[in-house]
Amino acid sequence: MDIPAVLALFDREERQEIEFPGTTKEITPHIVRFLRPAPGMNYILYSDLDEASADAVIDEQVAYFSRIKWPCNWKVFAHDRPADLVQRLAARGFEVDETDTVMVLDVAQAPDSLLSLPTANVRRLQQPSQLADVVTILESVWDENFSWVHERLGSHMAIPGYLSVYVAYVDDQPASAGWTYYNKKNFASLWGGSTIADYRGRGLYTSVLAARVREARRRKVPYLTIDAGHMSGPIVARHGFEVITYTTDCTLKMDGEDGTL
């Protein structure tokens, strides 16, 4: 895979040109930001800054979101400029999260380890009412409130061809989940990969991954992306995903307010 070419395509399609349902997209000379109705999180997905412009643009965004009194997530990628953008954001009150690894699979080159893996225990959800199984898994794994899944993923499931949600079951109990967003260009993105602790070590995460890769292959999507954490990164790397960059979420919260990405 030509990493620089894929990264340039990713920046253009997945950060600048992308559209999201239920959001308002705003483009300025320096940033691309998306606004969601409360209680959704607003976010900045792309920035074009340099040493001279960065501080003023950051201050503009802090002032803007302070004025509307709703939080903002600034998603910083390792190749964004200036090189110390994360540190500049932290100095202005943004909370810095752990860094994830952005990895990409050339779907046409997906390995047999995924294409031949049995996935009989993995089901693609057909109705929003089934999302209760996803919430059960996520809340068990992350010990957080994931009730927002019903509204957001449920509304996205109603958009033809946009979202596919998969759950792996053990003895008919939900054990592992993950979903894929299809953005109608060269990329589809993997999210939510989680397995309940009691069911780990059985290959369920990989089975859910395989089901999603096969769907992308049937739909002739060129590339699958994932923001991989320390647990998922080694797994997807074994199955052909390659690193193209790194990303760090920086969140500006308002006093007494919070949001969910």
Describe the structure.
By secondary structure, this protein is an alpha+beta fold. It has helices at residues 3-16, 54-68, 85-91, 112-115, 131-142, 148-157, 204-218, 232-237; strands at residues 24-27, 31-35, 42-47, 72-77, 95-106, 122-124, 163-170, 173-182, 187-195, 223-228, 242-252. It has two domains: 3-97, no CATH class; 111-239, 3-Layer(aba) Sandwich (Aminopeptidase). The protein contains eight helices and eleven strands. A hairpin with a 3-residue loop joins β1 and β2. α5 crosses α6. The longest helix has 15 residues, at 54-68. Mean pLDDT is 95; it is low at 257-261.
CATH topology descriptor of the largest domain = Aminopeptidase
Strand arrangement in the largest pleated sheet: 1-2-3-4-11-5-10-9-8-7-6
Structural class: alpha+beta
Taking pLDDT < 50 over at least 5 consecutive residues as the criterion, the unreliable ranges are: 257-261
The shape is: globular
What are the secondary-structure elements, in order, as H or E? HEEEHEHEHEHHEEEHEHE
Question: Radius of gyration in whole Å, from Cα?
Answer: 19 Å
Q: Helix coverage percent of residues?
A: 25-40%
Strand content: 25-35%
Number of strands: 11
Whole-number mean pLDDT: 95
What characterizes the major β-sheet?
11 strands, mixed
- CATH domain class name of the largest domain: Alpha Beta
Please report the distance between the alpha carbons of the first and last residues.
Answer: 31 Å
The CATH architecture term of the largest domain is: 3-Layer(aba) Sandwich
Q: Count of helices?
A: 8
- The overall number of domains is 2
CATH superfamily of the largest domain: Gcn5-related N-acetyltransferase (GNAT)
